[in-house]
Amino acid sequence: MYHKFCRLCHSIVIAILVLSIVGCAAPVAAPSAAPAAEAPAPIAAGLEVCQGQNLVLASMTDQYVAAFRALIPQFEEASGARLTLDELGYVDLYQKLIADFVGQTANYDLMTVDIVWSGEFGQNQYTLPLDDFMARDEAELQLDDILPVAWTLGEWQGAHVAYPLAGYANVLNYRKDVLEEAGIEPPATQEELLAAAQALTDPDAGFYGMALLGAKGPAVAQDYMVWVQQHGGRILDDEGKPALNTPENAEILKFFGELFNYAPPGSADYWWDQRETAFRSGNVAMMEGWSIARAGYENPEISSVVGKVDIAVAPVKAGLEPKFGFGGWGIGINADSTPQEQECAWQFIKWLTSPEIQKEWLRNDGAPIRRSTMTDPEIVAQYPWMPVLLESFEKGDGDYRPRIPQYSIIQDALGTHVNAFIVGQVTAEEALDAAQKQVEDNWQ
What we know:
Blueprint: H1 2-25, E1 54-60, H2 65-79, E2 82-88, H3 90-103, E3 110-114, H4 118-123, H5 131-136, H6 138-141, E4 155-156, E5 159-160, E6 163-175, H7 176-182, H8 190-200, E7 208-211, H9 218-230, H10 247-259, H11 272-280, E8 284-290, E9 309-313, E10 324-333, H12 339-352, H13 355-363, H14 371-374, H15 377-382, H16 386-394, E11 396-397, H17 407-422, H18 428-442
Parallel strand pairs: 1-2, 1-3, 7-8, 10-11
Antiparallel strand pairs: 3-10, 4-5, 6-8, 6-9, 6-10
């Protein structure tokens, strides 16, 4: 019995030893591997020159800034560049750009360029002429697709100191429900516009016929120049000299001032955003303004007139051949940026203004420059007012505000003295005489 017991014990001990050895030899589960880092997106063909570049873009805070916000990340992913957006108001943008150019600090590599700045920027060589880039890459650019008037957004004496970015048509926005109820057709002439503004104004109900720009400075100066163009007046004479105080322009100023009788209280202080707010609030029947704002009237987050607005080409004085105010923005490259930054900046311009990207530009509150975009069936279905804009572009006048180096002198003078007339401090003749003298005293 002893031997059996010992053999049994021996067997148990051996089994235990075997199990222990097997247990020790069993593989230990390996720790979970760290997730592999996501591979960077491949650089798009042609954008390799941008990899590692850091650019800064100064942009006006017009509606198209939303398109920059949406599309810049796409460009960064495609190019490997970093593009910082500095959003600035109109006066701030101009002042910061001039300081950057004069100081040659190159804080900004790219900048939005108002159509009226192209002469000043070109003459002073602030922005890089783009013609060599355009000639080199002509096969890619589809230049014939860009509407002819759009080239005024950055052309100066045959050179392109900015590239077309956002074309604006000056159009008549109107409350179709209000006009229909009153039995008034959308005005086709300036005379009809004044009559409609008068008929539709009801101060007791807090409703007004017309929204206008009256604020001292660029706002009232630019709005008055719209009316000069629509009445067949001129800012410069045949020799290119200022001709502000003509009898014809004085009559146009009186007409412009008459419209303020049918505008909301406080209109003499309206800038662009305040004029837009007045129209979107639902208390104004009509407003001439830039087409960039049109899509916003259908946005219920900012507009009380969704579905109630239509547009027409801007009315001109009876008997005039229709020409329509054209404006907007180009995009330029700082002449003081490094060659590498300039090359990458050009690649961004080329990418942004390509037919492929332009549809997304429009869908994010950008403004058109290409015929193919404005006639694209999907775009027209989404923005049914596009044919009106195309008509305005095809008969557009990009020079009604003179695109000359002295433009800011004219704007400063009109911005001061037209406002003085609007608020009743001087007569129309006195206002334009004072503006003429101010311009002549500062003309270079």
